[in-house]
Amino acid sequence: MGRKDFRGEVWTTVHPDILKRIVAVNDEAVDGGNGNDGHSRHAVELMQSFFKERIWTTFAINGTAANILALKSMLPRNGCIVCASQAHVTTHECGAFEYTLGCKILECECDDGKLTTDVLAARLKAAARYGYVPQVVVITQPTEFGTMYSLDELKALCDYAHSRKMAVYVDGARIGNAVAALNVTLSEMIEGTGVDAFSWGATKAGAMFGEMVVFRRAEWGANLPYLQKQSMQHLDKSQFLGIQAEYLLESGLWLENARLANQAAKHLETRLKQIGIPIRYSVETNMVFCILTSEQLKAVTQVFDAHYWDEPTHVVRLACTYLTTDEAIETLAAQLKQ
């Protein structure tokens, strides 16, 4: 297999500063019960400091678990969610939502992975005759294609959802990339638009593992300790998760790493355009989707681990991280110029 420079964040190493803190925590006495250690408590306090209003939080081991735990808290047994057909919750999570919760997903066709109020309204109208009870709009920010919802677009979706007595949940596995690219605060993107709940991704920000689930409604936070354990997300040695979230938030590393990844993607986009490679989606965060011929992909895979994201259209995803170097980008460009 070739180098994995452009496979994505889960293929990168853990940030060395986080590794140092994990090792240091191993020498500390745990100052709290499972899931209630000092580092986890401080991480929650740091997350609360971003917001004016009270929030309710818990931890999960990874992004899929965070999504399922959050939606389990938000949905009644007969509820369903609405999302873009490309959303992670309905694609790469391999039916975890349906298998675990037994609830229905109403998918919306969106070319760039972004829901609009018109698309949402049309999907809800078409589904009404079947008696579904849509209660949560799930969006990915940024989307699976690296595109972003602007603050105005987020607010429009939230206003529409709330007018239908629905809530809005943001899958934020890469939320730092969106905050950095929009040059806004987390509060402006969440409180300022009306988003009701979100996940905050640590894994793709440089952590070994771990995400946070954040609610803005008390009724969803009331039973979080119970639901976390029922969902098998109650990590016994929670200090090793807590220290990672604490450090990322306190140091600002979650945003620094996101900015570096976004900048690398823009550099990559520029180089690809210079050698005539078509770009499929607007490059707004850390992912570049380009169109490569079979010969070009074969040349790339002589050095890098790559594959067609969508084979019929020859679209390839190139995901940048905080570790993506100019050297790697130039090597990729050189392979494509052969």
Order of helices and strands: HHEHEHEHEHEHHEEHHHHEHEEH
Ranges where pLDDT stays below 50 over 5 or more residues in a row are none
Distance between the termini: 20 Å
User: What is the strand arrangement across the widest sheet?
Assistant: 1-7-6-5-4-2-3
At CATH level 2, the architecture of the largest domain is 3-Layer(aba) Sandwich
Report the count of strand segments: 10
Summed over residues and divided by their number, the pLDDT gives a mean of 94
Q: What integer value in Å does the Rg equal?
A: 20 Å
Structural class: alpha/beta
Question: What level of helicity do the residues show?
Answer: 40-55%
The proportion of strand residues reads 5-15%
Corresponding CATH superfamily of the largest domain: Type I PLP-dependent aspartate aminotransferase-like (Major domain)
Major beta-sheet overview: 7 strands, mixed
- CATH top level class name of the largest domain: Alpha Beta
Number of distinct helices: 14
Fill in the keyword field for this structure:
seven-stranded mixed β-sheet, single chain, 338 residues, three-stranded antiparallel β-sheet, alpha/beta, Aspartate Aminotransferase, domain 1, globular, Aspartate Aminotransferase, domain 2
How would you describe the overall organization of this protein?
By secondary structure, the protein is α/β, with parallel strands linked by helices. It has two domains: 17-252, Aspartate Aminotransferase, domain 2 (3-Layer(aba) Sandwich); 254-336, Alpha-Beta Complex (Aspartate Aminotransferase, domain 1). Helix content is 42%, strand content 15%. It is built from 14 helices and ten strands. The protein has helices at residues 16-25, 38-49, 63-74, 96-101, 117-127, 151-163, 175-182, 186-190, 218-221, 224-230, 239-251, 253-274, 294-300, 326-336, and strands spanning 56-60, 80-84, 104-108, 134-140, 167-171, 197-201, 211-215, 287-291, 308-310, 315-319. It has a seven-stranded mixed β-sheet, with helices on both faces. A three-stranded antiparallel β-sheet has the order 8-10-9, covered by helices on one side. α1 (16-25) packs across α11 (239-251), α2 packs parallel to α11 and α7 packs across α12 (253-274). The relative contact order is 0.18.
